[in-house]
Amino acid sequence: MFAYYFKLGVRSLRRNPALTALMVLTLAVGVAASVSTLTILHVMSADPIPEKSARLFVPQFDNGQVENFTPGADPDDMQMSYPDAANLLKSGQGERRTAMYGVPAAIEPPRKDIPAFQATGLAPTRDFFAMFNVPFLHGQAWTEGDDAKGADVVVLGRETAEKLYGDTNPVGQRLMVMGFPFTIVGVTDTWAPLPRYYKLIGGSRFGTPEEFFIPFSTAIRHETQHAGSMSCNANRDPGFASLLTSECTWIQFWFETRSAGDRAELQNWIDNYASEQRKLGRLKRNAPSKLYDVNEWMEKLKVVGNDSKLSAWLAFGFLVLCLVNTVGLLLAKFSVRASEIGVRRALGASRAEIFHQFLIETGVVGLVGGVLGLVLAFGALALIGMQSKGMANIAHMDWQMLGLTFVMSVSAAVLAGLLPTWRACQVTPAIQLKSQ
């Protein structure tokens, strides 16, 4: 019977086409508005590395000045000073650990037909690539020895490598970076986690991935200026050497543990470390040290802001408004078919059969509305993506959202059709037959 009722539902679309088109369009607009907004919220709030998110941790110390400090307040900056980063790298804690900061660099292509250009990269330690599951197209990460001596080696992003060398493997070639000859040891494959959870401070959280990577120690040895934010709570002497000994926070740090259960042990260690530093006259605010896993870190830095959540609620409110209008249109559509319902009841159709028939018809309306809503949602996301490169990276629909579009549309239509369908079932056959 379902197939038969489904065919009746398809045929009913041709009855009163203006009313049907208005219902489909109303439903489609409501679904498109809610789905496009929900898609962006889904991309922004999704766990970017679910297989590891409970094992990756950001430590946080508050090394600000005591003056004007309110106990319990957040630190002035969520990053870390170089003395703390260096100590944590040497600690041996966790399975892996990395310090990093953004670095700008002038790159001089080996090809004469390409002028020198400015690129933005990242200066992490070797563990970065394994910690964050960075795939490699050619070569591999630099060695621990390269980290130790600050070797002039570089890993290129795929787009940068193709821009400079085309489809050839550039591993082993020399490239002028920051005015120094660097040896290319690897090329990363396409890797663009959204959001860029590993470096949420400084730069776009939904922007393009880094164009190159050099060792953290190499960037320090070359006194490479950072690309990102910095917080200094006290005056310091000018120069890079003074920055390294200061309490300025400008480095981001991550630990990886063997299991999520090792968190307590790591927390205990950083608490002891902070206590030792206070004995040396540092961390004067005496604020508690904290650990954040990936999802907690994203929540702490408000990757999904209140504005985005409010937009989603407003979009769903608009969908509810569209459903109310759809209910009214369905009541009008079904009311003109009272005589048809009376004849069917007189011929033996039960109220349950009438209910199933009309409910399936509303499902057909929802299915058509879902197709149109999907088209409108793609158009809305395309318009949103034109606003900026960062928005273009998140304004795309995955299979989950595709499926949700149809489920939401059909469910919304069925929900809207419950009252009109129930009203249709209340038709009294005798009254309708007498009126014919």
Automatic annotation (TrEMBL):
Subcellular locations according to the entry: Cell membrane
TM ranges: 310-332, 364-387, 399-419
Matches recorded under InterPro entries: ABC3_permease_C, MacB_PCD, Macrolide_Exporter_MacB
Chief location of this protein within or outside the cell: membrane
Record's keyword annotation contains Transmembrane helix: yes
Membrane topology, as annotated: Multi-pass membrane protein
Domain ABC3 transporter permease C-terminal positions: 314-428
The keyword Zinc is assigned to this record: no
Keywords: Cell membrane, Membrane, Transmembrane, Transmembrane helix
PANTHER family: ABC-TYPE MACROLIDE FAMILY EXPORT SYSTEM PERMEASE COMPONENT 2 (PTHR30572:SF18), MEMBRANE COMPONENT OF TRANSPORTER-RELATED (PTHR30572)
Protein name: ABC transporter permease
Organism of derivation: Massilia aerilata
Lineage: Bacteria, Pseudomonadati, Pseudomonadota, Betaproteobacteria, Burkholderiales
